[in-house]
Design goal:
Blueprint lengths: L1 E5 L13 H11 L3 E9 L4 H9 L3 E9 L5 H21 L5 E6 L2 H14 L3 E5 L5 H5 L6 H17 L2 E4 L2 H8 L8 E3 L15 H8 L5 E6 L9 H12 L5 E6 L5 H10 L5 E4 L7 H6 L3 E4 L13 H9 L3 E3 L4 H9 L2 E3 L5 H13 L1 H18 L2 H24 L1
Parallel strand pairs: 1-2, 1-4, 2-3, 4-5, 5-6, 6-7, 8-9, 8-11, 9-10, 11-12, 12-13
């Protein structure tokens, strides 16, 4: 299969953000498929990730349009538009693939996939990693009526034109069905657990010493620090713990994003001791970081649509055998309840996080049981090799279906 893989935000083992596309490509190439990648460029370069993708046999076409988490709203819109124009021009120059696989966000990536599929006359599979425009609308980011109308119209076109849709959670699938997409045109392939990489405690004490975490119960939140992440929840929890005199529980917030400097200022101005913000670490260093942690936190701002998320960190925590704490409901909360491997908390009660961490700190049996169940869930439901095999089957089925239609 000759696959044209389209996305804007690409990262691999050298960066801290999602490595899903990189891991998909690595496995697909190893199975004998030819993968051509159209991708964007981070404002802070990530040439090593691009070289890593080329090293595993992918053909890379990288946009000159820079994008970064530090950008303001208008800057992001301009970057999305310019990247879309570049992708369309570049994609039309390429030789005809067997299938186009476009992975959002942003939604404009889906529009690129739709138009290039028409140009090359090949099947189009759209992967929904976050539901747009529902999320920016719910977050108050689509205040302009014309922009909001355009976004919803684009989403309708992309969904209608897709031969198949891959959703990263069952809740996302339900939301996509509301657009009139038949359930059998949607498959759920969630984010994955790298069970061969995570799960060892090797290097735990070394990392804890490096970060100064000795004699601390550490709850870690790695990843983006944007408005969607609602990290004031964790800062509020830390402030609450300080007021109670806690000195042995630490909230470690690790990453980058447009809220980082504000959160750092808040910690400094309010003299908060139980939360520390750290710079991001490459994906390759994440196993050691999680091995040094005692619990993992996935935090989002209170907004019902965000419960459909499929955050990478959730699956990394499971693979690492960490009790998982989330501050929302939905499908992930159901898994945590079923496997008894974590907590789903009220997003309006930061004190609930303090209570959960205190319980885990004080009950070694509970902590050990949750860790084992988290690892079991990672292996049974979210193993990356199994899920990439599922994705490959979906893509091949669309190629085969198109081939049979042409023959008829």
């Amino acid at each position: 299969m000759k696959l044209l893989y389209i996305l804007q935000h690409f990262s691999g083992p050298q960066r801290s953000s999602s490595s899903r596309p990189y891991e998909n490509i690595r496995r697909l190439v190893s199975k004998g498929h030819k993968v051509t990648l159209l991708c964007g460029r981070q404002a802070t370069g990530y040439d090593e990730d691009i070289q890593a993708a080329r090293g595993i046999g992918a053909e890379i076409h990288q946009s000159p349009i820079a994008y970064g988490q530090h950008m303001g709203y208008l800057q992001r819109l301009i970057a999305f538009r310019n990247h879309m124009k570049w992708s369309l021009n570049e994609g039309r120059k390429l030789s005809k693939p067997d299938l186009i696989f476009a992975s959002s966000t942003p939604l404009t990536v889906g529009e690129v996939g739709r138009l290039l599929a028409l140009h090359h006359k090949v099947p189009f599979v759209f992967e929904v990693r976050d539901v747009w425009p529902e999320i920016p609308h719910a977050m108050g980011m689509l205040k302009n009526p014309l922009l909001r109308w355009s976004a919803y119209r684009m989403a309708g076109r992309v969904y209608s034109a897709s031969d198949h849709i891959v959703a990263l959670s069952p809740d996302m699938k339900t939301m996509i069905e509301k657009w009139g997409v038949l359930p059998d045109r949607i498959s759920v392939v969630p984010n994955c657990s790298d069970n061969t990489i995570f799960g060892s405690s090797e290097g735990r004490e070394e990392v804890r010493k490096r970060y100064g975490w000795e004699n601390k119960f550490v709850c870690v939140h790695p990843g983006a620090m944007g408005a969607v992440n609602g990290l004031d929840y964790m800062i509020d929890c830390a402030k609450h713990m300080d007021s109670l005199g806690f000195d042995d529980i630490l909230l470690a917030i690790i990453g980058e994003g447009n809220q980082k400097s504000r959160l750092e200022k808040r910690i400094a101005d309010e003299g908060i001791r139980s939360a520390v913000i750290y710079d991001p670490v490459p994906k390759r260093d994440m196993p050691g970081l999680l091995a040094a942690s005692d619990a993992g936190m996935v935090c989002v701002t209170p907004c019902p649509v965000l419960a459909a998320n499929s955050a990478n960190k959730f699956f990394d925590f499971l693979a690492a055998g960490l009790p998982v704490i989330i501050n929302y409901g939905g499908w992930q909360a159901e898994y945590l309840k079923q496997y008894k491997c974590g907590y789903s908390l009220d997003p309006h009660m930061p004190s609930a996080l303090a209570d959960a961490l205190t319980q885990l700190r004080d009950d070694e049996t509970l902590r050990t049981t949750m860790a084992a169940e988290a690892r079991a869930l990672a292996c049974e439901e979210f193993d990356r090799d199994k899920l990439v095999d599922q994705l490959e089957s979906i893509l091949l089925a669309q190629v085969e279906s198109k081939s049979q239609t042409v023959m008829v």
